[in-house]
């Protein structure tokens, strides 16, 4: 048995994990108490990491050998690695020779390690001579990069997590931190408990779990952030709340900004943003550190922001306008103060550090700067780095769709789910002459478009480094050997490059002298090369080494080589905060105010498209769910997709909860159940970003397969950052008439669940609406080895599918045998089949539970049969009622109710929580403590605590009802 220190592969918090192994098997994962990012905490996703690396997942979901897909059909034919890489190198070289190097495009990922990123960047820009390499971080953090550079001079978040503990005001804009960065939010909760006077302002169109906990929620209209921030600065100027001494000593451009915000009066801001003038004044006063009389308090403001600011056609301006407020009030460079961008992916920062974006070069150098290009070319030993700007993510796929980019190499990302305007993206993947997908999981939507599939290592198998949101570099270490024939991403890129060198640089020394036979030595050599590129730059890490990281733990940059030797045993320590001296990395050492103006969203609401659709994260899922989607237990909190709208809009459009609707934009449509929610404002709607064609299917009116939520989103992007406006789409929502339904669920052997789900998912495009997800039993996380596993399929259409299709579904769910109970009414198009637990060849016993069912045509019995199956209660007492078309079970024989899980760690549902709260007296804090003591919910990872607090507030305490009645 062994324990390995490594890092979580999910969000940018960068949590340390301890991986426990027994031989070649992971037995558990724990938070690393010594890691400064999380101090032992993990969220629901991190806590279940080991369950994504089981033999069942490995055999069913992982890509384990190179495969050539002739005609891009089926799983493909196995290839030896040499043959696969020879084929790839030949195709790339031939295309580049015939059409030029810019006919090649590389699309990589913020989930790669820094070493992987570095080699890919060198391969594209140094060897092949194209800047067409971009990353899914373009969809995530490029507006933050552009905003920092436009104002502070460099892409460097100036604050750190410790500042949460020192801030007097937390200003959270465009981030549902409680769900997107749960472990950081645990620190926020801890800081607020320790300092009751700390204020929290949340700027978000939706009333999220984060907004629920705020002292002030500014529910602005989508896309109006710049107007809000400019209006706050207008008030600061009017009230005299700016730090004029700091502005004079450390900034430039303030006069132009003052002129810009002159017309951003409170009345105009209230009108555009849809908020109260009094709330605007309160937020401004708290941000500026003023008391009720406007007198300075010395208060410190830390702003935390994420995709709500970044994923916008004015994302750079939004970032810059918020940073303007920090510069105007001197709220930067001291504990508890500063503009802090929260990265979405585990190594978005590392990718930026090595120049993994189409407009960057190593060590934060700019591609457009000829001196920077010359420096990198000299360091790499190549004649030059091409000056032609590379195509960014949206541009890259548009060029491929138009035929200008003819080869696409995609590594560790899933653009056929995550990119906007999916019709264009999928046309690009279909039209490209050669598509390589380098992936750990072979089940992604993008894999279906590949000519060549290359198996890559993933979490618990990789070695290298990542950098989190606070500029902290952590080691990633392998706990297991690479499965099957999987290879490290940097190894694949290196071996490809060496083959290309034989054609492009014959007889010259290799540019890629990394030891691919020794993973640790090779990865360390790459990191050392990257380290040298940073010498003298803003992110100088020449004072660090892998030995330092191993000996002293994760470190922040900058951390330059010391001018004199440090005392023996004393660790090298990087900078926790930047700009403490008021000197910025600009030509004159001053920060620059950005005089930006508010612009409407790229696609405003209209009479034809009257709803503003926003997208965002679910608490327990990650991106396209290629990893989290292997775990049925992570679907317990939100088991199926939906579109949320305000109850007033449901009533106005005569819709009801759960009804299927078509959500349509100017680019495409998707069919979903509608759900009433007061978290969205009237005329607004919300769909979680994770639902792609792997889990959510259907077809359009013209018979084309639907591509999930990003079939709706626009390709419009910010001119400064090229980040697309994924956060806002104008849509219409209309009812659809799909009278024929399908509801199928089954418990299955764990080793079969993912295979069966994939087989069922192959049918998703056969219906107008379909969703297929795994699920799991109520076993708590600590006992997850005892959990049962299953698959759910829901579908609807205008008419019944062929009988052969229903037979195929029943066969996959183990219902095609004589022991199955069935009822068929061909005239009405109704069909039902059920399976009770029984030994092979034996009849079910009196206490047998329901193991599987298929309802076709009439599905009104689905909800109670679902509850019966999930409860694993005896089903025999229901007798003939199991096959009846009824919406509820017989009276007196109902199975235990099953509500969506609130606490995923211990699988505690909302029904159990509200029942417990109804018996609990006292104030909110006392009732929450009683709840946690009795049901233990919220006592593990803590991700559900914000939702628990909301349930506490919305559930009357014991005695309240009777007291009210007595009055």
User: What integer value in Å does the Rg equal?
Assistant: 28 Å
The class by helix and strand makeup works out as alpha/beta
CATH class of the largest domain: Alpha Beta
**Percent range of helical residues:** 25-40%
Describe the 3D structure.
The structure is a single chain. The protein is of the alpha/beta class. It folds into six domains: 2-61, Phosphorylase Kinase, domain 1; 67-141 and 348-556, Rossmann fold; 147-341, Dimethylsulfoxide Reductase, domain 2; 601-618 and 631-732, Barwin-like endoglucanases, CATH 2.40.40.20; 737-896, no CATH class; 901-966, Arc Repressor Mutant, subunit A (Orthogonal Bundle). Strands 5-4-18-17-16-6-7 form a seven-stranded mixed sheet, sandwiched between helices. It has a seven-stranded antiparallel sheet with strand order 28-31-32-30-35-34-33. Helix 5 crosses helix 16 (315-329). It is globular and about 85 Å long. Keywords: 4Fe-4S, Iron, Iron-sulfur, Metal-binding, Molybdenum, Nitrate assimilation, Oxidoreductase. Its cofactor is [4Fe-4S] cluster; Mo-bis(molybdopterin guanine dinucleotide). This is Nitrate reductase.
